[in-house]
Amino acid sequence: MNRYFRELSVAGALLLVLAVMAIFAPGFFQPQPLLSLATREAPTLVVACGMALVIIGRQIDISVGSQFAVCSVCAGLLAAQNVPTALVALAAVTLGAGLGAINGLLVAGLRLPSIVVTLATMVTWREALRWQRQGAFVNLPDSLQWLGLSQSAGQWTLVGLAVALLAVLAYVTRHISAGRLVYAVGTDAEAARLAGIRPQVVTFGTFVLLGTLTGLAAMMNVVQSPQVDPKSGTGLELKAIAAVVVGGVAISGGRGRLWGVFAGLLLLACVAPALTHLHVEAYWEKAIQGAIILLAVVADGVRSRKSNR
Amino acid sequence: MSAAPLLELRAVAKSFGGARALRGVDFTLQAGEVHALLGENGAGKSTLIKIVTGAHQPDAGTLAVGGERLSHLTPAKARALGIACIYQQPALFPDLTVAENIGLRLEAGTSLRTIDWAARGARALELLRRLGAEIEPDAEVRSLSMPEQQLVEIACALGAGARIVIMDEPTASLTQKEQHLLFTVVRDLRASGVGVIYISHRLEEIFALADRVTVLRDGESVGTHPVSSINEAGLIRLMVGREMTQIYPPGEATLGAPVLSLRGVGCTASGVHGVSLEVRAGEILGLAGLVGAGRTELARVLFGLTPADAGTIELNGEPVVLRSPQAAVAHGLAYVPEDRRRHGVVLEMPIAENMTMAVHRRMFPGAWLRFGAERSLALDYIRDLAVKCTGPDAAGGSLSGGNQQKVSLARWLATRPKVLILDEPTQGVDVGAKGEIHKIVRRLAQEGLAVLLISSDLPEVLGMSDRIGIMRGGTITAVLPGNADAPTVMSAALGQSEKGAA
């Protein structure tokens, strides 16, 4: 079997959905709504790329939604003080890296299970933010909107940035030493250790990278609206993990491709607008997304059982 | 004896894949007898036990319990027949109490039955008192010592009405005093008519406890003797008395300067202590010893996995500190681990990626992977070591055991080491590949590498080594010349040479 079979089948499913839409609801392919959809999903794609690397390294981070909210609010507060946009972006990214480093230190340094650590930091950041903001939104200056560009130019910039980042990360994970080490550690950390690799350093690195990307994603989200909601990012971890799993990354680590994650994210993101154009009730969105995830997990389960034979 | 034996095995044979673990073993156990089972690592003891407990089905031969021949024994049937096995590491639930553990094993009924806690506690107490054990049924198993946990296991066996009790190296982790307590229990079991199969590497225990002893060698029983009619030297001869079937490549006459010198090296965490040793360039130093003697532990100390906390390690005359595998690699040490199926090669990764895994920094300066260089390195090693594969892109898991071992070896040769530590390099490898690996190792030594060869395969150690270090109880107890004979090495490994008869 082709070793990209899993990724190609997701891409195939996406093409199938697009083909169905082309035949039954060509109205789906209007540029402006699609561009808006892509802009909304761009931050999620950035987070999903980082999440994919964490999961390939056999860890998980469910605190990205809270990290996202903390970074968004801090970016908003700085922008409200009329700090230049470039510095705001730098601050959001640095803060994200710091939050990722905290998770990384706890997981890699103290060797704690990542699901528990990030559950704790997820709740901690979210509640700290609630206490600090008391639910109040942050009003943003107009200059921050779409990075000071026109709306469509801003949208194109954000989408372009997300896709460029995906391309760079996808290339880099396959072509630099560190990328391969993530796969090695995710497949068999003990074997990696016996080969003189420091699995803890690799794990720490993936968490910091995810935090950094989450900070960037927060910035990409802040510039899309006039206000920052302190509850933003709720459920982001689930969207990112879903895209990663549907995209063919093994939840048990060591396997997966970023472009597969891209296809997975697009497939999940298409569901809602497709339903609208097919005149199906929007309630079905979550059910269908759930079914896609389940199908992906079952496919991976069957596959790994076969290869264990 | 007039009655049918409690347990009787006739011509029992068992193969795993191509490897014949048992090739026609006869074994009888009488009621009220302690029957010791003795043999080198890999002689077939565990396989025999697994057949008796129903975990494995024999390929040929018959098995009878109390004169009744059994055709298809399952673990459940074996338990019902009164066969119980007490392992070295008791298989109890540490977070449950003693009474709960005993109840789980002995109480019948469905998962939804109601539990009579008073009866459960009383029964546990009664069983434990019958063994003379001062253990409270309410105690959590976690809080018990190893021998106490074994007693709980024995209590389970008694409660199940066991007539045949198998003890697999029960004293391996016990202190002297605890051993005596266990011996008393075993003698009581014998007096009450239970048949005990007792497996141990400690000859003095066998002479103190057993009535008869059966020696296994290469999957065959080479003799059953009453303990009173045989001495330790005789037992050792039985264990090792085999012909050398393989031709080993000849050793090098001239050795270089010492590369690795250890003085009083120890590591509290892994039980290694007071190891002094010297390995010269071009030398293969064999490390012989029983399972658990501390050989792998010593290798892990040298490779910085469990760093040494005592003594000095010198490489080429320079003292070095090896606190991590990275430090060990940087100083020119390479460790091809035991159990390559689990951690020697990454099975899902291509051969080429496996081979370069330990040399990323040197192969890929600036961190960019150079696929061309990687491929040519892999092709070189595939040719040099004659790795049978479809190419450098084949997954590690697609290779046979011997070829996986060659990939693991290539990974470490790529680091251009000065000292190569091989841990059971030919375990589970077929004969042809075994010979090839031997030739490769000898060639590497001739090229000036210092090789530390850990092996439980006695002919391999004897055939390959320029000198043989004997490990026992976490330290080197003797260093023998490479032309030592098998009985000498085996007695040293068993600890008989310096102590004499107990």
What does this molecule look like?
The complex is a heterodimer of chains A (309) and B (502). By secondary structure, chain A is mostly helical. Chain A has a single domain, classed as ABC transporter involved in vitamin B12 uptake, BtuC (Orthogonal Bundle), CATH 1.10.3470. Chain A is 74% helix and 1% strand. Chain A is built from 12 helices and 2 strands; from the N terminus they run αααααβααααβααα. Chain A has a two-stranded antiparallel sheet. Chain A is globular and about 55 Å long. Chain B is α/β, with parallel strands linked by helices and 502 residues long. Chain B has 2 domains: 234 residues, Rossmann fold; 237 residues, P-loop containing nucleotide triphosphate hydrolases (Rossmann fold, 3-Layer(aba) Sandwich), CATH 3.40.50.300. Chain B is built from 18 helices and 20 strands. In chain B, the strands form 4 sheets. Chain B has a 6-stranded mixed β-sheet with strand order 6-7-8-3-9-10, sandwiched between helices. A 6-stranded mixed β-sheet of chain B has the order 16-17-18-13-19-20, with helices on both faces. In chain B, helix 3 packs across helix 4, helix 4 crosses helix 5 and helix 8 crosses helix 18. The longest helix of chain B is centred in the middle third of the chain and has 16 residues. Chain B starts with 6 loop residues before the first strand and ends in an 8-residue tail after the last helix.
